[in-house]
Amino acid sequence: MTTADSSGAERSGDAPLLRCEGVSKSFGAVHALYKVDFEVRSGEVMALVGDNGAGKSTLIKGIVGIYPFDEGTTTFAGKRVKIHGPKDAAALGIEVVYQDLALADNLDVVGNMFLGREIVKLGVLDEVAMEHRAQQTLEGLKVTTLRSVRQTVAGLSGGQRQAVAVAKAVMWGDSKMIILDEPTAALGVAQTRQVLDLVGRLAHQGYAVVLISHNLHDIFEIADRITVLRLGQQVGVMNRRECTQQDVVHAITAGDMQFVPGMDEDTVAS
Amino acid sequence: MSGDVESTPTPPAPPAASRRTSGFAAPTTGVGDYLRQRWSAIKAGELGALPIIFGLIVIVLIFGTLEDQFLTARNFTNLLLQMAPVAALAMGIVFILLIADGEVVSIDLSVAFVAAVGGVVMTLLQRPGDPGWPWWLCIIGALVITTAIGLLHALIITKLGVPSFILTLAGFLVWSGVVLWLTTRFSTAGTIRIQDDRLVDIANNFLSEGIGWVIGVAVVVGYAFVQVRTMQARQARNLDAKPLPIVVAQVVGVAAIVLWAVWVANSDRGVPQITITLGVFLLVWTFVTTRTAFGRHIYAVGGSPEATRRAGINVDNIRIAVFAINGFMAGVGGVILASRLRSVATNTGGGNLLLNVIAAAVIGGTSLFGGSGRVVSALYGALVITAIQNGMDLLGLNSGIKFIITGVVLLLAVLVDSISKRRRAARGLT
Ligand SMILES: Nc1ncnc2c1ncn2[C@@H]1O[C@H](COP(=O)(O)OP(=O)(O)OP(=O)(O)O)[C@@H](O)[C@H]1O
Ligand SMILES: [Mg+2]
């Protein structure tokens, strides 16, 4: 819990924490994103849905600066920002948990959570401090299924690994926004449950959470709002309480495209 | 407020104090719990030093019954001398094996000849008047050259993308050629003697009885101190700690082995000086691998280079540093090798040295698949492999038979590695 408290990730009413306006990204002739508006507030779970190739991953990569947008503006915490790479994003407090979690199987939970940012005292790893902080973070997230933070990650279940990856992302004092790319894609029922609970707690603790998922059932359980992308365009932002799964499915497959750029849909979709 | 999530009623968060919640098992205090945990870890493929202990028992039983000379104090000190070059080289190989990443084997097939180059350089530098450098400068010269060779290997592997297996196979030929060329160029007989007594002493001198005891006791006290401090630090933060009886048992065990070894060695010529040198390297490299961020990153590269890269660590730099360390230890091994034989010759670094070194690292428990192993495994493995060689020599076995047996032992070690790796993987899938 300490992490969220000290992070200053307070709920800030209706002002979005992150706001992208009219962002576009092309790969050659392919408009992967075209004039997309996207926003997320502190303390909410914003789901990002769309068919394969709709541009979800591209939007995320643009936000964290892996593929900077070609045009459009990004505002973070009320200030215009230019994010040129994951380091910039991390400095602002944006952390991404990618689908292939990228954990080192042979290291234990503590080793993974601190990889590359080890606590060192006089050149020596401060294992005790790291273990202590890792436990606090996991406890703050109410991750109760781990037997010990000294287990190697190889021995963890998919849900536990996801929890470790999320804990790793939120442990850094100044993280305010967590992006999860299909966190439940490979999980069974019970583990999906654990991860969804964890996502809910993140929002409850004041983080802005972006959840990419193909599973509408999960989304309707946990999301506050839903942004729908279709063929690189944003075709709707819905309030979960005011729409049905049918509405979302319709938007995903046949949502109204606002723009018809200088090419036909086939090119856009290819 | 849009943040309400009906489906997950979240109780108020606990205060930001350092107290534990019920999320984690209480710190183990029971010996039974601890032993049960260890046992399930062993079943899951984390064997630790078990195969070594088993191997040593088998060796003692077989050679002890077949050959009276095997279990004598004289042979024990011989063994300590004989294992030294293998142990030094195997320490470097442990680093190399640690950064293998599953599919791509990371290996150094040239290590024995790089060591020989180091030995030759040292020997050439000490030749009286030509240029007749002081002994310590000769050693530094050797270490600088072999470290540079390690760096060269690393740069070709990382920057040009040549697999270490292929590059060091080429290195095997190149460096054996360099040894052959240098030794025949500077000596018609192909053998260059070491005339500096200090250099000969390195691998042939013994400590006095008193100093042997002092060092033995210091090792035991130091070990006990570290164990107890670790336990206390963890208990103070309310983290899982080894139960006290286990710590006491470990300290008593280490004390018994170390003091027994000093006693046996002292009843012959004493504790070899080189054993202490190896102990210092063991301490330094164990510290580097287990207590520093750099060491943590070495393991991470062996576990998942991708995860390491994403954590902002320069994976190539880690690989380069590891090959440099291996080159350095090859130099150390070369100095020991030359010192032990009091000379270098055309065949220095040849024979089954390479096989023994790699076998030592693997037998000691360092995985060929990367990411798992400890520096001390080099010493364990060197002890086992040298004891086998030594026993077979005493029995006067035919060279062919010796090769076959060594090969089979290496195969066994690799099998143990593969099977325990599968077990670890199987557990990872659950
Ligand atoms: N690096 C790239 N080079 C060229 N085209 C790309 C690149 N990355 C994405 N695209 C294209 O951009 C479009 C959007 O892809 P994106 O990966 O964002 O989709 P997605 O919504 O994440 O789909 P999925 O659900 O399958 O993950 C696709 O047409 C894809 O082919
Ligand atoms: Mg995607």
What are the low-pLDDT stretches of chain A, counting only 5+ consecutive residues below 50? 1-12, 262-270
The small molecules bound here are: adenosine-5'-triphosphate, magnesium ion
With strands numbered from the N-terminus, the spatial order across the biggest sheet of chain A is 6-9-10-3-11-12
CATH architecture of the largest domain in chain A: 3-Layer(aba) Sandwich
Instruction: Give the DSSP E fraction of chain A (strand runs of 2 or more residues).
Output: 15-25%
Count of DSSP-assigned helices of chain B: 16
CATH topology description of chain B: ABC transporter involved in vitamin B12 uptake, BtuC
Helix content range of chain A: 25-40%
The number of distinct helices of chain A, counting runs of at least 4 residues, comes to 10
**What is the first-to-last residue Cα distance of chain B?**
40 Å
Instruction: Tell me about the largest β-sheet of chain A.
Output: 6 strands, mixed
Number of DSSP E strands of chain A: 12
Residue runs with pLDDT of under 50 for 5 or more positions of chain B: 1-23
The outline of chain B comes out as globular
Outline:
Chain A is an alpha/beta fold and 270 residues long. Chain A is 34% helix and 24% strand. At the A-B interface, helix 1, strand 8, helix 5 and helix 7 of A face helix 8, helix 11, helix 12 and helix 16 of B.
Provide a descriptive summary of the structure in words.
The complex is a heterodimer of chains A (270) and B (430). Chain A has 270 residues and is an alpha/beta fold. Chain A has ten helices and twelve strands. Chain A has helices at residues 2-7, 56-63, 86-92, 109-113, 127-140, 158-170, 189-204, 216-222, 245-254, 265-269; strands at 18-27, 30-40, 45-49, 71-76, 79-81, 94-97, 120-121, 124-125, 177-181, 208-212, 225-230, 233-239. The longest helix of chain A has 16 residues, at 189-204. Chain A is globular. Chain B has a two-stranded antiparallel sheet with strand order 1-2. Chain B has one domain: ABC transporter involved in vitamin B12 uptake, BtuC, CATH 1.10.3470. Mean pLDDT of chain B is 88; it is low at 1-23. Chain B is mostly helical. Chain B contains 16 helices and two strands. Classes of the chains: A alpha/beta (270), B mainly alpha (430). The interface between A and B is large, with 62 and 51 residues. The structure holds adenosine-5'-triphosphate (ATP) and magnesium ion.
